[in-house]
Design goal:
single chain; alpha+beta; 3-stranded antiparallel β-sheet; 16 helices; binds S-adenosylmethionine; binds zinc ion; transferase; S-adenosyl-L-methionine; tRNA (guanine(26)-N(2))-dimethyltransferase; RNA-binding
Amino acid sequence: MLRAAFNKVKTTFSGNNNTSFPSSSSDSNETLNIDDYNIVKEGKAQILFPKKETVFYNPIQQFNRDLSVTCIKAWDNLYGQKINTNNSRSKKNRKRRKLDTGEPIDTFKGSNYIRILEALSATGLRAIRYAHEIPHVKEIIANDLLPAAVESIDRNIQYNKVSHLVKCNMDDANVLMYRNKAEKVKYHVIDLDPYGTVTPFVDAALQTIDEDGLMLVTCTDLAVLAGNGYPEKCFALYGGVNLVSHEATHESALRLVLNLLNQSAAKYKKTVEPLLSLSIDFYVRVFVKVKTSPILVKDLQSNTMITYHCSQCGSYHNQPLGRKTEREGKKKLKQIIKYSVAQGPPVDQKCKFCGGTYHLAGPMYAGPLHNKEFVEEVLRINKEEHRDMDDTYGTRKRIEGMLTLAKNEISDAPFYFSPNVVSSILKLQVPPLRKVAAGLGSLGYDCSMTHAQPSSLKTDAPWEAIWYVLRHCEPDKDISKMNERGIGYQIIRNMNNWLPKESNRTKLFDPSKLSFEENELSGKIEKLRKLKIVKYQENPTKNWGPKARPNSS
Ligand SMILES: C[S@@+](CC[C@H](N)C(=O)[O-])C[C@H]1O[C@@H](n2cnc3c(N)ncnc32)[C@H](O)[C@@H]1O
Ligand SMILES: [Zn+2]
């Protein structure tokens, strides 16, 4: 039973063309006039929308909801069931079965246990979908601040016959979560899907989530998180500044949200592990696992960075804010870890490539954006369990495409660059991605595509190598015909000044090794590029984007 005060909202239904169903606010069989509503089917839920729209619903967000259902299932399989079986000390709850691929997997045979809070629920659609579609759910609280929203949630709970699982609640989300905290009520899963920024809800959610619980977080304020106009607002809300005017600003948006979550969690001796972090359409969505661990909190400093990015040529240089070093102890039994201050800065006052001025971004999260095991489980569920369910999971193909790209992203290389942008700076023709990959691979570096932007590459190569490879994609280019005041000319002309000298080649790279012959890396990129999957979404509909709050009048 919900221990928090449950603020019942009386729902009254009347009219001629009546469909009758019980309301949770009363045991009596109240009726509603179905003609007053449009019925929207999404997933396994059917939601009644008042024809006069008073509650928020954005159909474009089906991708967000389909993906969230799949991610909660993956969390349940990988982590949640373990918590539950460990708690009940009954390993009998897990039974082996085989996947289509022949791989064995444990099947959970225990009782339903998952407690979910949808703190900002609007129509209740998401909570009702979770009730219909996610196994092992014990209870879902669908909360909203607005009476019209709670009325709608209540109505839809009844219409979908899920009142045994979904309870609606009317409260400010923070009031509810802090009351839950006081009463020691915890949730395994907390979904925060606000208008704009999630910032006001983060502290309360981090204190109300269970150990190893899953937090699903949306931010739609991309004008602030990824735009050029509000660095001061971005800093105030997220504790850092985005990569203003840079194509990789969408990745910095993800890293800023993860920074906010991690900095907030650290106050409560907790860490936030990103399981999946996606830049989607007009918003970002991160799926993180939260755990109390004072030891891991110590990594926060070295896992946080600032970034210097050149306002002219776009080259970027990351500066961790702390240093973590590990060495073997005397008895070789124990690793000795030392935390110390970072050394810097990593750049001179002016960009050595083009002479431009550096802008400062961050502080933001510097670590991996995804957990491969988790992404693979989401992809497996999407492929095997949701097979032949395109009617229910209308965005299945898009999930497959976006997560396949995310899974293949290299994890230890913040940001990405666009060969289109780099070649246009150098006034060269745009080379195919596989050629750039071949060049970087020949110099000993790794690279991958990114889910966040088409035709772009993440790489662990330094910018010296990026400029060198791109310039030599068109080695015969006659630079004497270039505008001498252009940035591209400066970069090419100065190249010999900053290319690694013989003595430095082991540390950086050996330019003489450059080759554009196909290699393992170019093969990997080309294979992924040729996969017949929906890699990047065209604009889903006309005038798509975040929806405004409904007009209550
Ligand atoms: C973007 S909508 C949620 C959409 C919903 N999660 C879905 O998938 O369709 C945001 C909702 O948050 C509610 N809201 C805004 N501030 C709130 C607060 N402080 N506490 C609770 N609900 C709030 C609004 O009334 C609105 O219904
Ligand atoms: Zn520069």
